[in-house]
Structures are given as C-alpha cells and as structure tokens.
Amino acid sequence: MELASLIANVQGFTVIAVGIILGLGAIGTAIGFGLLGGKFLEGAARQPELVPMLQVKMFIIAGLLDAVTMIGVGLALMLTFANPFLSAVQSVAG
Amino acid sequence: MSTEGGATGYIVHHLTPLSVGEGFWTLHLDTLFFSAFLGGLFILFFKTVAERATSGVPGLAQNIAETLVEFVDTQVKDSFHGRSPLIAPLSLTIFCWVFMWNAMDMLPVDLLPMIGSLMGMEYMRVVPSTDLNGTFALSISVFFLIFFYSIKVKGLMGFAKEMTCTPFGPKMMPFNLLLKTVEELAKPISLGLRLFGNLYAGELVFILIALLPPIVQPLLGFPWAVFHILVITLQAFIFMVLTIVYLSLAHEDH
C-alpha cells in the first residue's frame, strides 16, 4: 500500500503539472495569435495589395509563436504517457 | 516498460521506437530507415525530373518540381542576403525532406506497424520527425553550418569579436559571451523541439482518436487530419525559412 500511495502521489502531481503546462501554453498562444491576426487584418485593410506578402510573414510568425507551446505540449504528453518520475519510483521500489 | 493492458498499453506500444543498443548508443532503426528511404525517394524524384526535363509543355512531375524549386528560390531570394551556392539546394532539401517526414503521419496509425509486426518487428514509429533524434539531427547539422559559415565569412577574429563585443561594448565581455552563447544555442534547440513538439502532439492525437469506438472516429479524425495537413506543410516551411534566416545572419559581414 505504501508503494501505491507513493505512485498515486507522483501521478497526482504530474497531472497538475500537465494541466498547468497545457493551460499556460494555450493562454500564451491564444493571446499571441489574436494580436498577430489583428495586426494582419489591420495591415490588409490599409494596403490590400500587400496581402500575399503579409500572409507569408504571418505564417512564419505563427510558427514561431507556436514553438514553445508545442514544446510544452510534447513535454506534457511525455509526462502523461512515459513519466520518468514514475519510473524512478518504480525502479527504486519494485 | 510495464505490461499495462488496454488503452495505455496501446498508446505506449505506439510510442516505443524500434531500437538496438543501449544508453547513448541506442539506434532507432525505424527513424533511420524511414528518413533514409524518404531521402532516397526525394533524390530519385528530382533526378528523374531533371533528366527528363523538357522546355515544351511540362508533364505533372516536372510541374511539381518546378513549382517547388521556384517557391524555395523565392524564399531564399527574399531572406538570404549573402552569396552562397549551397543555400538554395539546402533549403529545397530541408523543405522536401521534412515535409515527407511529416507526411508519413497521414498514414493510418496501425498500418505500417502491423505490417512490421508480421515481419517480426515488435515496435515501429514511422514518422521520423516524432523522434527527437531525427529532428535534432537536422537542427544540429544546421547549427554546424551556421558555425562554419560564421567563421568562414567573418574570420576567426571577427567571429570572436562578434561573440564578445555585441550587444554591449568590449567592457562587458563575459556578459556578452554568455548572452551570445545562449542565443546561438537557442537556435538549434528551438528548431529541433518546435518540429518535434508539433509532430509528436499530432501523432499522439491520432493514436488517441484510434482508441475511440469506430463509429465516432471519422467525426474527430477527419477534421484533425485536415488540420494536420496545414501543420505538416507549415512546420516544414518554418524549418526551411528559419534555416535560411539563420544562415543569412551567419553570412553577415559588416
């Protein structure tokens, strides 16, 4: 039972960590994309002939915005399915 | 890896690579095979098109190749401010190769692993960009290229001066060095992790969709697959553009 409560402890904290990572990443990306899209639409309204060029640059910046969020998502998914902290507990106890 | 059954076992099974060796010298055979195979396809395609290129009405293959080359050429012309015969072919290779890696994610999740298990391979991950080894192989190679071209264009003294005297003057050398080192290291790390994170998340969502009852699968699977087409192309494009921009910065010679 001792081992079960240890594992439950680690898993509980991992779940909270995953939630925080995903949530904060989502907030950052959402705000960033909102600002980016807004500026793009403003620029497109002012100078419609620049839209193709602006669109390409928008996608480039979108990729940069996504980067750390996706790193966080990858890390969070790794924590969910291949948790190193859990395997540390299991290797010591089991 | 414990023998959990059910959903978690399925997911973990699909996330385990086919590897030999242990510790630092673990080789992910599936990543190696698929990246080499797709690279061979890329070379074969462009070689065939180049040999059969006609100045008359082009066929479909030639059209595709010309569109790709023109697209990459425009990007390089826009973003690269140096002189180098390497950049455009490098960009084309990176774009097409990364795009093909990512496109392997559009195959059904169980298809190739099932064929593999019939041939005796217990695990198989078919998308090389979901393997950190694959994406970091590309980004570390780009990092070496940045380093090489920085020294080649600026000279060893010029490179050292740039690393120690910018952005603040020569009086704050250790601080400048720290800042520039972090900035230079952030380039390959972010390149590799960005591609990895996007594709790993995409693949994992496909695996999770595969666990749903078959009636519901198309409802979620189809929109995600369509969105994923955008993500695939976008990530390959961003990897290429950032490579061009970093190499352009390395070629800067004030």
TrEMBL record, chain A:
> In this UniProt entry, which residues are annotated as the site Reversibly protonated during proton transport?
66
Q: How does it sit in the membrane?
A: Multi-pass membrane protein
Q: Where, per UniProt, does this protein localize?
A: Cell membrane
Q: Which residues form the V-ATPase proteolipid subunit C-like domain?
A: 16-79
Q: Per the record, GO CC terms?
A: plasma membrane; proton-transporting ATP synthase complex; proton-transporting two-sector ATPase complex, proton-transporting domain
Residue spans crossing the bilayer: 12-37, 58-82
Which UniProt keywords are given for this protein, alphabetically ordered? ATP synthesis, Cell membrane, CF(0), Hydrogen ion transport, Ion transport, Lipid-binding, Membrane, Transmembrane, Transmembrane helix, Transport
Molecular function via GO: lipid binding; proton-transporting ATP synthase activity, rotational mechanism
Q: Name one Pfam family in it.
A: ATP-synt_C
What CDD domains does this protein's entry cite? ATP-synt_Fo_c_ATPE
Annotated family: Belongs to the ATPase C chain family.
Q: What does this protein do?
A: Key component of the F(0) channel; it plays a direct role in translocation across the membrane. A homomeric c-ring of between 10-14 subunits forms the central stalk rotor element with the F(1) delta and epsilon subunits.
Q: What is this protein called?
A: ATP synthase subunit c
Q: Which organism is it from?
A: Methylomonas methanica
Automatic annotation (TrEMBL), chain B:
Ribosomal protein as a keyword of this entry, yes or no, is no
Q: Which UniProt keywords apply?
A: ATP synthesis, Cell membrane, CF(0), Hydrogen ion transport, Ion transport, Membrane, Transmembrane, Transmembrane helix, Transport
Subcellular location(s): the record lists: Cell membrane; Membrane
Residue ranges annotated as transmembrane are 25-46, 86-104, 132-151, 195-216, 222-249
Task: Please name the InterPro entries in this protein's record.
Answer: ATP_syn_F0_a_bact/chloroplast (IPR045082), ATP_synth_F0_asu (IPR000568), ATP_synth_F0_asu_AS (IPR023011), F0_ATP_A_sf (IPR035908)
Q: How does it sit in the membrane?
A: Multi-pass membrane protein
| Listed HAMAP family | ATP_synth_a_bact
What is the purpose of this protein? Key component of the proton channel; it plays a direct role in the translocation of protons across the membrane.
Protein family per UniProt: Belongs to the ATPase A chain family.
Q: Read off the NCBIfam families from this record.
A: ATP_synt_6_or_A, PRK05815.1-1
What name appears for this protein in its UniProt entry? Answer: ATP synthase subunit a
Species per Swiss-Prot/TrEMBL record: Methylomonas albis
